[in-house]
Design goal:
alpha+beta; Dna Ligase, domain 1
């Protein structure tokens, strides 16, 4: 796939933003100022002020002498970087790889993207038109290398699309500044009469390196294309990501569902071929007003089942506000795991924790009420009841020991036993009644005691004598007495409820 790069140059980046915030500034000359070495310098000027001779780097007093009615605003050092970051996030609708090019530009890796717009010309036209609609004066150029795209955007007003055939010829017509060299190097080149890149290309490389250093050789090779130049995107590109730009913005639930199904088919097809399944997935919707809507799903085990994943997203599509329309859909799978097809056993059904239907049921419940609301417990190697169970990390985690089945255990075990008042006839005899939360429970059946000692290697303390009791209403409880009857400090507690 041939490489294609886009350079976007915002000539009046900071002043355009102020004009959007204060529309009255659009029709008057104004500048942004910032102190420097005891003087007030102009850091940005709008098109009107620039047309009258006021430009960046000028002393403010000189600018006021040229334009007495000049409007002056304070500049913020971080303004351009923050603004470019927001614009770069918006430009992801045109390419997954977008980088900030300080102080006034963006770079896009458009390789493999332009055909979705019907070609390079339509691609750059759409970018420029939408940026202009957002209120920004931008020059957009596409070329084979970053260097040619960058230089053409700033030093050639004619071209927007630089084809491979015109690549070198256009590069040679540009000034040395187009190579993004240091100011000192550019000044030396002009003093030597080297005003065009074609003059530099013809010069011996050894002479250039000796006079100007390695940087000019590197920049020249990158612009020509003999040396690769990479850009660092503001957002890392997920290896498993599918995108679908829309010719016409989509604003209906039905349209979103159709797009989602198409993206899932493509993504799951890739995962199936690589024997992978996704564990998390995010659907991002880029609206035409620049806002991003997104929903995400989580699965309990790797999955590339299109129907199942669509149902999980379907539970959350109501949270997407399409606004005036969505122009780009992005489906990502940040977390994937191996998903090998399981071998079925003859004469046996798929049951238990390995049943895919159970995992899909848990996925639907988890994405509807939250995965934090679903728990699975395993036996733990402890005697103390509240320590004898632990939270499983996953559905596939295997228990180290078996559940204790020699004595009945309550279905619901309180994390912290709750104190109760008990009436018992004689020592080590089951209680006759107990009072819990102000209600009296008369006991008609009881069984026990079952003595459980403290784990001396964890802490020292009294033992517990547990009783299984049933009240007049048929409710069954798990009670225990802490300590001996002859100890005046003994107490009774409720620890669990039987089904």
């Amino acid at each position: 796939m041939p490489k294609r790069y886009v350079s976007i140059w915002f000539r009046y980046l900071a002043t355009d933003l102020h004009s959007l915030c204060q529309p009255q500034l659009k029709s008057i000359p104004f500048v942004l100022r910032s102190p420097s070495h005891g003087r007030m310098l102009i850091t940005s000027s709008n098109a009107i002020a620039e047309s009258k001779g006021v430009c960046q780097g000028m002393v403010l007093a000189d600018a006021r002498a040229i334009i007495p009615e000049l409007q002056v605003l304070d500049d913020r050092p971080d303004l351009k970087e923050k603004l470019l970051t927001k614009l770069a996030e918006w430009c992801i609708c045109f390419s997954p790889i977008v980088a900030i090019d300080l102080p006034d530009g963006l770079l896009l890796d458009a390789s493999g993207c332009t055909h979705l717009w019907g070609g390079d010309q339509n691609y750059v036209n759409d970018i420029g038109k939408k940026l202009h609609a957002r209120g920004y004066d931008a020059k957009v150029v596409i070329a084979d290398t970053i260097g040619v795209a960058w230089g053409t955007a700033r030093f050639n007003r004619k071209y927007q699309v630089v084809s491979t055939n015109d690549h070198l010829s256009i590069l040679q017509t540009l000034p040395p500044e187009a190579l993004r060299l240091e100011n000192e190097t550019v000044e030396r080149l002009h003093k030597l009469g080297l005003h065009k890149i074609q003059q530099i290309i013809k010069a011996p490389r050894a002479s250039l390196r000796r006079r100007f250093g390695q940087d000019i050789i590197t920049k020249l090779n990158r612009a020509i294309g003999t040396e690769i130049e990479t850009i660092v995107p503001i957002m890392p590109v997920e290896p498993y990501q599918e995108r679908l730009p829309c010719i016409e913005p989509i604003a209906t639930r039905v349209g979103i569902e159709i797009v989602l199904e198409e993206l899932l088919k493509t993504l799951c097809g890739r995962l199936t071929n690589e024997q992978l399944g996704l564990r998390t997935s995010i659907l991002k919707c880029y609206r035409i007003d620049g806002k991003i809507e997104q929903v995400d799903i989580v699965t309990s085990r790797p999955s590339h089942n299109i129907k199942h994943l669509f149902q999980l997203f379907e539970l959350k599509l109501q949270n997407i506000d399409p606004g005036l329309g969505i122009e780009l859909f992005l489906l990502e799978a940040p977390r994937v795991e191996d998903h090998l097809p399981s071998q079925e056993k003859m004469w046996e059904g798929s049951v238990g924790l390995e049943d895919v239907r159970l995992a899909e049921l848990l996925d639907r419940l988890g994405n509807k009420i939250g995965t934090q609301s679903i728990h699975r417990y395993l036996p733990d190697e402890h005697y103390w009841p509240e320590r004898s169970v632990k939270l499983a990390n996953s559905l596939q985690e295997k228990p180290i020991i078996s559940w204790r089945v020699d004595e009945p255990r309550p279905v619901q075990l309180l994390h912290t036993p709750e104190p109760i008042e008990v009436t018992a006839p004689i020592p080590d005899y089951p209680p006759m009644l107990f009072i819990y939360k102000g209600k009296e429970h008369r006991i008609v059946h009881a069984d026990g005691p079952e003595r459980i000692e403290q784990e001396w290697w964890l802490q020292q303390g009294q033992h517990r004598d547990y009783y299984r009791v049933e009240d007049e209403e048929g409710n069954r409880y798990w009670l225990f007495r802490l300590g001996h009857y002859h100890d005046k400090s003994y107490k009774w507690f409720l620890h669990g409820f039987f089904a």
